[in-house]
Amino acid sequence: MEPIYANSYIPKPRSSTNQSGPRSSERRFHGAVVLCLGLLNVFLLAGLIGLDFDSVQRLQASDHMLSSLTTERDWLNANLTEMTKELNRNPCPAEWRMSSCACYLLSAESGSWEDGRDDCSQRGAHLVKFLSNFTKNETQAWIGLTDKAEEGTWKWINEAPLSVKYWQESQPDNGGGHSHLGEEDCAHIKITGGKSTQNWNDLLCKTSLKWI
């Protein structure tokens, strides 16, 4: 009896390389993800640290500015207090009177406008400017205003032009057309004790009056 042969196929086992390929790729992918997440965390942490450092610097700068402003405020308050004390004192010489942060003296004697100008100059002063009311007592006195240089152009004794005016109604009138009164080229103040600010008048400069 002849032997019978049959073909048989025995499958070969897959190599270990083919079996581990997908798993190895998956592990590499997971590792890359973990690495990216780690780097992202590092960047976020660095950013937070940078922001925190910047905030600290800004806070320190604000504290420094606040301290400087506080120091400046205290300095200004101290100076204001000292200035208030100085203002409460009378810095004017004897017999002089302080008004609107300036010293004034109503002369005891009377004379012409030029006499008043010269007397003030000898005292290191000048005839008054920009004065409406000075005293509650009724009086008339020369002030440092004249139009001697040019008729109708009134200037202060320091050549400053006249801007604020306290003329009486219808004044100045240069004598009102009465030639016997002469040229009224000098201004005086007529104080009546009231609150009126319209108390200037022009007058003949040789008239005898007190002066301020």
Automatic annotation (TrEMBL):
<feature type="region of interest" description="Disordered">
    <location>
        <begin position="1"/>
        <end position="24"/>
    </location>
</feature>
<dbReference type="Pfam" id="PF00059">
    <property type="entry name" value="Lectin_C"/>
</dbReference>
<keyword id="KW-0430">Lectin</keyword>
<feature type="domain" description="C-type lectin">
    <location>
        <begin position="103"/>
        <end position="212"/>
    </location>
</feature>
<dbReference type="InterPro" id="IPR016187">
    <property type="entry name" value="CTDL_fold"/>
</dbReference>
<feature type="transmembrane region" description="Helical">
    <location>
        <begin position="29"/>
        <end position="51"/>
    </location>
</feature>
<dbReference type="InterPro" id="IPR051379">
    <property type="entry name" value="C-type_Lectin_Receptor_IMM"/>
</dbReference>
<keyword id="KW-0812">Transmembrane</keyword>
<keyword id="KW-1133">Transmembrane helix</keyword>
<dbReference type="GO" id="GO:0030246">
    <property type="term" value="F:carbohydrate binding"/>
</dbReference>
<dbReference type="InterPro" id="IPR001304">
    <property type="entry name" value="C-type_lectin-like"/>
</dbReference>
<feature type="compositionally biased region" description="Polar residues">
    <location>
        <begin position="14"/>
        <end position="23"/>
    </location>
</feature>
<dbReference type="InterPro" id="IPR016186">
    <property type="entry name" value="C-type_lectin-like/link_sf"/>
</dbReference>
<dbReference type="InterPro" id="IPR033989">
    <property type="entry name" value="CD209-like_CTLD"/>
</dbReference>
<protein>
    <recommendedName>
        <fullName>C-type lectin domain-containing protein</fullName>
    </recommendedName>
</protein>
<keyword id="KW-0472">Membrane</keyword>
<keyword id="KW-1015">Disulfide bond</keyword>
